[in-house]
Amino acid sequence: MSYDPNNIFAKILRGEAPAVRIYEDADTLAFMDIMPEADGHVLVIPKEPAEDLLALSEAGAQAAIATTRRLTIAVKHAMGASGVRVAQFNGADVGQTVPHCHFHIVPHVPGAPRRNHADAARMADPAALEVIAARIRASLAELAA
């Protein structure tokens, strides 16, 4: 499989598609999942064009995991989660739905609703995602201080 420069994450990186952005640096971008499994579900993507982790360079992988770790700590803190699942899929046969390397950060809050991943009929309201994103951004700032 070759990299498709028109996948939705590539479009988000180019500013051609909307996303509720949380964090960005020279190598990575983190934003709210539009079809979240739980409130606070964040995606981290490398800016490097790679369809999966296996195609990502060593430097891209290091940057992506560093950002994923940083955001996982912030999401757990912001959402008051008892735990956080970090997932990464490589190939459609194992559940990868967008052919651009990405990491899912899904907080677990006891008693909070869980939803199916990538249920297009259940896209989240961007305004509601922005409220949660603001909490995560504040947590990032607090943890950096």
UniProtKB/TrEMBL annotation:
Pfam families: HIT
Biological processes, Gene Ontology terms: nucleotide metabolic process
The organism's place on the tree of life at top rank: Bacteria
Active-site residues from the entry: H102 (tele-amp-histidine intermediate)
UniProt motif Histidine triad motif: location: 100-104
PROSITE patterns in alphabetical order: HIT_2 (PS51084)
InterPro entries: Histidine_triad_HIT, HIT-like, HIT-like_sf
Domain HIT per the UniProt entry, residue ranges: 8-115
An example Gene Ontology molecular-function term: catalytic activity
Protein's name in the database: HIT domain-containing protein
